[in-house]
Amino acid sequence: MKKIAFAAMAIMAFGLMSCENDASTIRDELSEEVRWYSGEFNVDCWTRLSDTDGLNGYYKADVRIPNLNYSVLRGGQVNCYLFVGKDAQAQLPFVRHYENGSGQRWTRTIDYEYYDGGVTVYVTDSDFAGDVPEAMSFRIMLAW
Hints:
Strand order of the largest sheet: 2-3-8-7-6
Oligomer: single chain
Helix content: 10-25%
Largest sheet: 5 strands, antiparallel
CATH architecture: Sandwich
Order of helices and strands: HEEEHEEEEEE
Radius of gyration: 24 Å
CATH class: Mainly Beta
Shape: globular
């Protein structure tokens, strides 16, 4: 039994030693020059969308960000923040739970996606009541 355990440990040790990464398969780009962009934008015009049956409604807004180009998409980082007060920001996605005086409860989710040339911000309320979101302010940060 001891011989089998020793043989198994020797095989595992040899296997771990032979599992080194081939440097040609690792994409590692190191640059002395880091570039970044930070911009703020306000959204006060929302477009309502839904599925083909008119259900599952949500709102969206497209914002052009010229600095958000293909090279940032391929080798950079994109972060979007919601201003939630005078001196506070929250990174998207942002989820907050609400209740009104009538006892109705819902959750609002604000998220985003980005593409070559811009950002689309989405607002979805869990009750799908269809209330148009208020004006919101965002910050976009790019690093590449």
